[in-house]
Amino acid sequence: MRPLNNSSILILLLISNFAFAQVVPNYAKEKRWASQVEDGLMDGDVVWLNANKRQFMSLYTPSETNTKRAALIVHGLGVHPDWAQVIQPLRVALSEKGWHTLSIQMPVLANDKDAMQYIPLLTQADNRIKAAVDYLQQQGLNADAIVSHSLGSLMSAHYLDNQQHSFKYFIAIGMPDLAVKYLGKIRIPMLDLYGVDDIEPVLKSIKERAQASKKNKHYTQKRVDADHFFNDKDTLLIDEVGTWLK
């Protein structure tokens, strides 16, 4: 086989970069999720927001107390803002603990796509988080906390690393290894919460996440008796998050 010359290598790089840039969210899947969520919504209200020249769904759940504190809830890979595991329990429970919550639909891909294939969508994810923050501020609320799960923790870390923001607290539940590179500049109080039976990308990066956050004096890493989705451990999850936010 003949070795590639510089021109051939350049062409391959351009083709690769073009393919990378062409990754777009699965809007049809988002539409199906939205229909499903609206039909079964028990708590909160649907609010449609705009980013990247598209509408996306969010769920606003007002606090039961007189407060201006709001928490943004960011779900994980391929799901929706009322996902029964982690997301729905938190968005409702935090509203009972003195927080308005806004759970937002993040970009999703087809079911067979893994976390690495979401990397080209991080900028779009940033824009959705920014739109959610703007909405909360328009309601006279303070976007004080960002509470995220799994891939949502990667998206949230990317936002905090790359955007000016007003968040005071960052909770990352089941944060994967891909987020390590975005932790170095984060200085706000952060809870890195994971389970003893978590998934491999979380467990294999425990030390790396702590090392990347060594300059954050307000970084806390905590392991609890749970799996990645806190199956049958909603009370544990709510207690850990609620207590830390106090």
Automatic annotation (TrEMBL):
Pfam families: DUF3530 (PF12048). Keywords: Signal. Residues 1-21 form the signal peptide. The keyword Electron transport does not apply. SUPFAM superfamilies: alpha/beta-Hydrolases. Coiled coil: none annotated. It comes from the Bacteria. The keyword Signal applies. This is DUF3530 domain-containing protein.
